[in-house]
């Protein structure tokens, strides 16, 4: 009986706290999904490498330029506050690679994984020289630029032709210093093994 009374009292306390304590604020509404297909192609984007040209990661330079499409009406860029430029896998380098899959919903898109630059929008045109980062893998690429509004949401875009992509040769070799380090550690391991073997033999012979 005493246990039932205690359990009942605890239940009443829990109910009381649940009623009296302020409820947590409702979760914020999920960020609206932006679809690439719904964005106006208001930017004209160009790059310096020619179709099929091979750049080397860590060394190659891509000059990217963008401007407002002349077909856009006056004031079409009034909401443009910044430009975000990305390096995107070309279709040939996405085939049978789900981790590079292109998606219409931008936050799910895996084709444009590499940021080139993000900078304030300058009316008319912009330009940026991008040195291909050392971690860019071997593949074919095109460039896509997004115009962002004050909240950082994509409101327009432009891109180079995915069918006129340039290539990047990634860094796949092992650096000489790594080979030296591996050799030193291997030699140390062999020496340590020999040392412990001798010690164990001496212990057994005593």
From TrEMBL:
Keyword Lyase: no
GO molecular function, one term: nitrate transmembrane transporter activity
Domain of life (superkingdom): Eukaryota
Stretches that traverse the bilayer: 180-199
A matching Pfam family: NAR2
Alphabetically ordered keywords of this record: Cell membrane, Membrane, Nitrate assimilation, Signal, Transmembrane, Transmembrane helix
InterPro entries: Transptr_NO3_Nar2
Keyword Methyltransferase: no
Coiled-coil blocks: none
Function: Involved in nitrate transport.
Matching PANTHER family: HIGH-AFFINITY NITRATE TRANSPORTER 3.1, HIGH-AFFINITY NITRATE TRANSPORTER 3.2
Family note: Belongs to the NAR2 family.
Name of this protein: High-affinity nitrate transporter
Species of the source: Zizania palustris (Northern wild rice)
């Amino acid at each position: 009986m005493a246990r039932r009374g205690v359990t009942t009292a605890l239940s009443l306390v829990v109910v009381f706290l649940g009623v009296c304590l302020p409820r947590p604020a409702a979760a914020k509404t999920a960020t609206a999904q932006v679809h690439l297909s719904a964005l106006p192609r208001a930017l004209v984007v160009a790059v310096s490498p020619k179709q099929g040209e091979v750049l080397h990661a860590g060394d190659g330079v891509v000059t990217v330029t963008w401007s407002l499409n002349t077909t856009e009406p006056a004031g079409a860029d009034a909401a443009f506050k910044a430009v975000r430029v990305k390096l995107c896998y070309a279709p040939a380098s996405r085939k049978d690679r789900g981790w590079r899959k292109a998606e219409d919903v931008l936050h799910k898109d895996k084709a444009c994984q590499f940021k080139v630059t993000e900078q304030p929008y300058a009316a008319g045109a912009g330009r940026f020289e991008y040195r291909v980062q050392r971690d860019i893998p071997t593949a074919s690429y095109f460039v896509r630029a997004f115009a962002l509004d004050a909240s950082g949401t994509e409101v327009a875009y432009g891109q180079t032709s995915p069918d006129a992509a340039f290539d990047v040769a990634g860094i796949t070799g092992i650096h000489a210093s790594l080979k030296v380090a591996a050799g030193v550690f291997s030699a140390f391991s062999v020496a340590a093994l020999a040392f412990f073997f001798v010690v164990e033999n001496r212990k057994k012979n005593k």
